[in-house]
Amino acid sequence: MNNVTHIKNDLLKDGYYKIKHDSGLTIIVFPKEDYATSYAVFGTNYGSIDTVIKTSDSENPTSIPEGTAHFLEHKLFESEDLDAFERYAKTGASANAYTSFDKTCYLFSCSENFKESLEILLDFVQNPYFTQQTVQKEQGIIGQEIKMYEDVPDWQVLFNLLKIIYHNHPVRIDIAGTVQSISQITDKVLYDCYNAFYNLNNMVLAVSGNVTTEEVLEVANRLLKPSKDIKIEREVALEPCEVVDNYIEQKLSVSMPLFNLGFKESYDTPQRNLKEQICTRIILEIIAGDTSPLYKELFSQGLINTRFGSEYFAGYGFATVIFAGESKDPNEVSKRIKAEIKKIKQQGINEDEFQRIKKMLYGRAIMGYNDVESIANELVSCHFEGYELFDEIDVFKSITIEDVNQRLTQQLDEDFSALSVILPA
Amino acid sequence: MENSFNITEVAKGISVCNYKTNRFKTGRISFNITVPLGENASAYAILPYILSRSCGKYMDFSKLNARLAELYGAALIPSVSKIGEAQIVRLAMTMIDDRFALENESIYQQCAQLLCDLVFEPNFENGLFNEVEVNREKRLLLERIESQKNDKRVYALLRCEEIMCENEAYGINYYGNADDVKALTPKSIFDAWQEMLKKGIIQINVVGNANTDEISNLIKEQFDKIKRDEINRIETKVIKTANEVKKINEQLPISQGKLVMGYRAGITGQEENFGAVRVMADIFGGAPYSKLFTNVREKMSLCYYCSARLNRQKGIIMVQSGIEQENEQKAIDEINNQLKLLQDGEFSQDELSASVAGLKDTLLRVLDTPEDIDAWGYSQIMSKKFQSPQDIIKEIENIDRQQVIDAAKNVTLDTVYMLSGEEGEDNE
After folding, report:
1. Residue B305: closest C-alpha in chain A
2. Largest CA distance in chain B
């Protein structure tokens, strides 16, 4: 019998059902009865940073070429007869997939024929079909995808930064790999990865929209093939505290220099919890958000434009604060940001500022529960990171200024910072 | 009526487009003001940005941003764009619904008030826009124009449209051009602001659970103070058929070639029944089931993306693809060949049904976020008759093969634009 839990939130007046299905798969259904559409994501906890296979029933870890997770995502759409896109064409659903650093997700959105579309999704993801010939064909297509990104300055400035921040962690490699690395991918490599990582115990199905749990389970019961209960051990290389280098530049066809300034963090545990993440978001708003004195100064003096922003770039085994933007003088911006951090670290964060940012982020958090697409994708991320969707709201309420000031002492260390710049060619 | 578009004219040329619903946690309010796309494009282009940076009440952007933070992180999004040959000045806001306010205050009302403050009571100094602000926004607009070059896919598309429509107003960049931006003064921007409020066709979109009557009254009060005798008439020039094919090659230091092919769609832009053209363009290059995706990408492995996008108001179809430079001719030939196959009726009933089902789905999806509903209202601003997504679905549902073939036969190639890497340089 499937085990069902109902998770609710009183403030949002929303809730979802979480089911540990007999096949091993976790299924999450978030009904939104009055919506026109439904959105489903079928994801595996396997992304570009997984460059070795190590499962509880294998003896030795095996290395796999960079870009394999993404390559596999492309190839899974194919089968011996009709590919998945041709099948979806009959239901009207629009389908897609994406690969990130730590997961691979297959999704569709539809307004009609939900069950038929879900059948297609569960079917093609569970039935791989790779041949040497179809692998070769894809090398051409993905080769062009990689080349497309070579012309995207925002992408290049980030990966250049990651390359000088991380010595060993595979977050430093491009999600799609390189033309050279994908040339090593064979049908056998794809099957090996598929068999290891596409085990239902390592996966989740999240559905949000105009659907019921019964509808989802009816299809799931028919189509899911029980998986052997194995455990996958995510292994990422050991990473020193220090950065590789503190400056990198590249020339591209851009009108104005672009920059990414990163502050690397090191921890004994691979993942940052929700409280750490939220405290960091508050800190970044206070240091460089658009109500901050620093933002005002840089903006008024013509050193940044509206594309300036910051993010907490964190995942399994990596955590870096990144400030990004366009500037005629990235070095000066970098200097000012560092000076401001020093100042705020000395003074601490004040209560008024803290309350204002908290109110703002409370509103922004609520905005995140609006559409079926972000809800379903967020459900997948939360599941893999080991918490529930509404935990964020609760953590938010409980955070104090002491928490934030305490968190501030753990991050934004200038000694572990690096600057990546793209200059006009 | 709930969950449908309701349009009310509140004054001459000014309408409120309301989509009332309580299913979202957020709402969306936007001001959309249309002016003819023309010589004065730069002055209009700077307006949404200068108006959303400060106002008489919040005299610099830090004060304004603090106000937005206080409104639970409400987002204020200025933009400028074009629909056909109309330039649209747009200020949009997303806010949380009143039921989440911590002190029972109405966030919708406060946001609507803030938008009115921004649009009608700018931050003036001696009766004109503040000079420091003007200079800063000029710099930012110049940077925006310059940075259109950064995304090469967008840049190639803009260049192709510019070349294809060089003798039409549509060829004008919606940001204007650098020389005109440099010449802007507090006075010229002030004049454009007045002109826009006096003559613009204005639509205010309100999505969510706001009290629309109160918002309509707020807007009416503002416009009562403005003399609006003569409202803009904007007609987009549409060329039905291309005469000869223009072929342009340009170079930049890039790694992948960007190919753009501009077609004339064989329509006037204001047809009553437009369904067949929509379906035809979708079978051609709308989604992964389309001819361009399945052949140019999947069968020939020439590219990662290859798609066709129809611009109804201007009556053009733009095909875009990123390819190896040496495959340029091969790709051009194949794209033209796929159009020819459509014209010859070489497509199945399945392809037609897939396209209708896909389009239908995309159209219904519009109704599931406040942002998309607002964008839909915006997209209809230049149409003679407001159509909802459901109205469009009715138009496409019963399209038959012959209608698609007839629509395809009217399509002609106008311009082929190729952006490639610089010769003699190794860009690997």
Report:
1. A145
2. 67
Distance in angstroms (rounded) separating the CA atoms of residues B365 and A210: 12
A306 closest CB neighbour out of B140, B293, B297? B140
Whether A147 and chain B come into contact, CB under 8 Å, resolves to yes
Q: Which CATH number describes the domain made up of B246-420?
A: 3.30.830.10
- Give the DSSP per-residue string, B225-257: TS---S----------S--S-EEEEEE-S-SSE
Dihedral, A188, A194, A196, A199 alpha carbons, nearest 10: -150
- Distances, alpha carbon A145 to alpha carbons A129, A174, A190, B269, B291, in Å: 22, 12, 19, 34, 19
| CA–CA distance, B116 with B125 (Å, rounded to integer) | 19
Does A247-424 match A3-223 at the fold level?
yes
Token digits of residue B199: 């003559």
Q: How far apart are CA B410 and CA B241, in angstroms?
A: 7
Q: Do A253 and B252 touch (CB under 8 A)?
A: yes
**Domain-by-domain residue ranges, chain A?**
3-223, 247-424
CB neighbour burial string for A245-279, b if at least 16 within 10 angstroms, e if fewer: ebebeeebbbbbbbbbbbbbbeeeeebbebebbbb
Strand partners, A318: A315
Q: Tokens at residue A156, please?
A: 């290049």
Residues of chain B with CATH 3.30.830.10: 5-224, 246-420
The answer to whether the CB atoms of B73 and A359 lie below 8 A apart is: yes
ipTM: 0.90
What are A126-170's pLDDT values in tens digits? Answer: 999 999 999 998 999 999 999 999 999 999 999 999 999 999 999
Question: CA of A407: how far to CAs of A130, A147, A293, in Å?
Answer: 48, 40, 21
Instruction: For A21-61, list the strands marked E by DSSP.
Output: 26-31, 38-44, 52-53
User: Does the pLDDT value for residue A347 go beyond 70?
Assistant: yes
Among chain B residues, CA nearest to A83: B289
Report phi then psi at B172, rounded to 5.
-80, 135
Residue A333 CA to residue A287 CA, distance in Å, equals 13
Residues of A with catalytic annotation? 73
Closest residue to B96, CB basis, from A89, A367, A425: A367
Phi, psi of B412, deg, nearest 5: -130, 145
CA B92 to chain centre: 13
Task: Give the mutation candidate from A79, A109, A142, A147 for the B interface (greatest B CB count, under 10 A).
Answer: A147
CATH 3.90.1300.10 fits A247-424, yes or no: no
Burial class, B205, CB count within 10 angstroms (exposed 0-12 / middle 13-18 / buried 19+): buried
Percent of chain B with pLDDT over 70: 98
Name the class of domain A3-223. Answer: alpha beta
Structure tokens at B410: 């009217």
Name the E strands within A125-246.
Answer: 203-209
Distance from CA of A141 to the nearest CA of B (A): 5
Which residues, in sequence order, are CB contacts of B111 under 8 Å at separation 6+? B27, B29, B71, B74, B93, B95
Kindly report the number of other CB atoms within 10 A of residue A150's CB atom: 18
Quote the minimal CA–CA distance from B200 to chain A in Å. 27
Q: How far apart are CA B150 and CA A258, in angstroms?
A: 10
What's the CATH class of domain B5-224? alpha beta
Question: Could you give the CA distance from residue B273 to residue A124 in angstroms, rounded to a whole number?
Answer: 38
DSSP A260: E
pLDDT in tens, A207-265: 999 999 999 999 999 999 999 888 888 887 889 999 999 999 999 999 999 999 999 99
* Residue B156 structure tokens: 């190639």
* Cβ–Cβ pairs < 8 A, chains A and B: 183
Confidence of residue B426 (pLDDT cuts 50, 70, 90): very low
